[in-house]
Structure formats: structure tokens, C-alpha cells
Amino acid sequence: MIQQPLRYGKTTLQASFPEKRVLQIIQGKKTDPVADIRSGVQTALRQPTGRPPLKELLKTGDKVSVIVSDITRAWIHYEKFLPCLLDELNEYGISDRDITLVVALGAHRRHTPAEHLHTYGKEAVERVRIVESYAREEADFVYMGTTSRGTRAYLNRQVVEADKVILTGGIAYHSMAGFGGGRKGIVPGVSRYSTIQENHRFCLHPEVGQGISPTAESGRLAGNPMHEDLMEIAAFLDPAFLLNVITTADGEFARFIGGHWDKAWQEGCRVIAELYGVPLREKADLVIVSAGGYPKDANLYQGTKAVDNALMAVKDDGVIILLLECVDIGEPPDFSGWFGHADLQERERHLREDFTVPGFVALKCGYDLRRVPQILVTLPENRDFAIKAGFLPAAALEEALAMAENILKKPDYTVILMPDGGNTVPVLA
Prior knowledge:
Blueprint: E1 2-8, E2 11-17, E3 22-25, H1 37-46, H2 54-57, E4 64-69, H3 78-91, E5 99-104, H4 113-120, H5 122-127, E6 129-133, E7 141-146, E8 152-156, H6 157-160, E9 164-170, E10 173-174, E11 178-179, H7 193-200, H8 225-237, E12 241-247, E13 253-259, H9 263-276, E14 277-280, E15 284-290, H10 300-311, E16 314-323, H11 333-336, H12 344-353, H13 357-371, E17 374-377, H14 383-389, E18 392-394, H15 397-408, E19 415-418, E20 425-428
Parallel strand pairs: 3-19, 4-5, 4-9, 5-6, 9-12, 14-20, 15-16, 15-19, 16-17, 17-18
Antiparallel strand pairs: 1-2, 7-8, 10-11, 12-13
Domain LarA-like N-terminal: 8-208
InterPro entries: LarA-like (IPR048068), LarA-like_C (IPR043166), LarA-like_N (IPR018657), LarA_C (IPR048520), Ni_dep_LarA (IPR047926)
Domain Lactate racemase C-terminal: 282-328
């Protein structure tokens, strides 16, 4: 028998199956965290990819804008490495008064002062000026050009008028743009709302009524229209330097990536694929997936990342069991509210009129549920919401297994277990 612990909220559930039935346990590669954060940052800045060392790109008195992700990307842990970056800039002749942190809010709301402190740390907040790029403040944005796909690029004046721009962020798999990080700090990060809308609509199928684009998916860059449009807009700005982080499954720094905003980022994508892309031998009848426990399964919105990955491992006539405790299943309201549109075409119509990422995730969730039955192991009080969203709710793993067996109707079904489904991506050879 194979006994596999699966995290569920702050507890652990045990999955037990005969070894011959378990095709694979999908886990990312173990990687040691960066032992010395300051040294890791220095190496990225001094031995970059595709660019000279950052010191050679700057001169004393340059006005430097550092694009930083907002609180929704708190996993990047700016508070731990921003002081190292600021110290290096000081050493290169750039004083704190010439450095501005530009918060890449994208289409999100503004931060509170307390959220600045939480996201960037007390030292950085006290040392340098902070400006927020709020997408709906149209006067703050400058027209940069129009992409080959017709997206009109308006970028924040603070970064456009800076002498040098340093683009920071974190790289991970992304269900729409293939990979996060890099150019996404520019769009949606420091773009006007209309630019974000025009670009993100490439995630939808080019034919109205057909839902989501089949080429806007996790791990895919070539032929992904959203990504390719993002790259054209980023080229209009052409940041001087990129500093992105890659984290371990436990949230520690695995590597700092530095250099050219495209070439270094592409290197980072390859590292992510090596760490979290797991070769899949064959698909299974049943996939049991944990997002990785709390906070990754605090709500359904976060948990859908595990759904995306599990779908890559299950047969078309199979079943998925999701282990998502969801202590706040309805958060954020921008996501849960979309399930008020029970009809997917209605959901799509509203999304085309006013695109939001939570709305897209809700639309994709609906189409995924049409494709494969999904049994959601969650808190009993989440039952009504789960049914409304289209899931089959269960209060325990044993109950979910009985439901799955009733759907599959075969005693010798095969199984794949995904204990860290929020991070690991099965890649079928």
C-alpha cells in the first residue's frame, strides 16, 4: 500500500491505495533555499543574464524607478530583499532620495499605509519614496504606442520619465500568461485600465460564445496571444534591468534572477519548469490533489491553481478530488460574485464587457467543471456555495472516494496523487 499525506488547511489527510493502482505521485524537485539573501541579490545584480552588471548601467544622480508587485504577491517577500537592493544602488552612486518604488497595482485597489509596511518592510518604506500606479487614474499614464494586435499601451508616467527602470517581481506558472513575473510587472502592473482590458481579452476565445482561449494556458508562451502582446508592450518601456525571485514550495527563496527584462526572465521560466514541471507518464482515471494546505487553500479562488494542474493529469472521462478546506470560500467577492451568472455564456458576455482576472478564473472554472467532474472536500458550511459553483461537495476524503468510485464505475481505476498541486504542473511527454 502507498500512504500519502495530503495537506488540508492546517491539518493532514492520508490517502491510501494499492501500489499497483498509483501511477504517479507528482511532486516538484527538492531545492535548497538561498542560504544568504544579500549574497543572492548581489550575484544577480553583478553577474546578470543578457545585460552588463547593474552598476555599469547607472550613473550618479540617475532617477531610478523600481517597479514592485502589490500585496496580492506578498509571497515574493520584498521585506526580506529590498534593503539589499537599495544598499547596492547606494553603492552604485544612487542615493535613496533618487529612488522611487512604483507599486504595480494593475487593476487592484490602492494600498493602505499598513499594507505598504507589510509588503515592503519598515526599512524600505522609511528610506525611499513610494508611488502607486492606480490604473483608473488616467492622467497618470503616457501613450507609448500600439501593438501589432491593436492594444494601445499607456504606461505610468513615473516609470516612463525615470532615467532607469528596474523591474522586480516573482516568477511562477501562470494559467493565462504561461508564466508570471517579468513583463507582467508592466502589464497589468503599471498600465492604464484600458490597456489591461485590451491585453487580457486575449485570454478569451477569439470567437464570442466559445469561452476561453485554448492557447492561454499554464506553461505556454509560444502562440499565447496574451503573452506575445505583453512582450510588445514591455519592449516599449525597455526596462534597464530585471530582478525576479523564484521561491521553493515552502515559500523560501530558491534563486534570484537578474539581467535583461526578457532574456533573464526566460532563464527564470526554465528554472521554474525544471523545479515544478513534472514529466507525466500517463493520465489517470482519478486525480486527488491538495493545493498544499493553508494559506493556499484558504479560499476557492486560490485553490483553482490546483485545479488547473490536476486537469493536466486526469483522463477526459476521469474524476478529480480537490482537498480545499476554504475557511473563506467566498473570498474575494470579485471572484465569488461571478457564480451568480449560472449560464457560462452570460458569464462570458459580462467578462468581455469588463474583463477582470477573478471573472476569467470563474469562467474557466465553469468550463473545467463541464469537462471533468470535480469532488470538493471542504468544510460542511461551504456545501451550498460549492453546489452553486458546480462542484460535488464532500465533508471527508472517504466520502469523496465513494462518490468518485460511483462515477467511474470500475474497480481497477488508476490514481495520481498531487500533494502540492498549487505549484506542480504535470507535463505530458
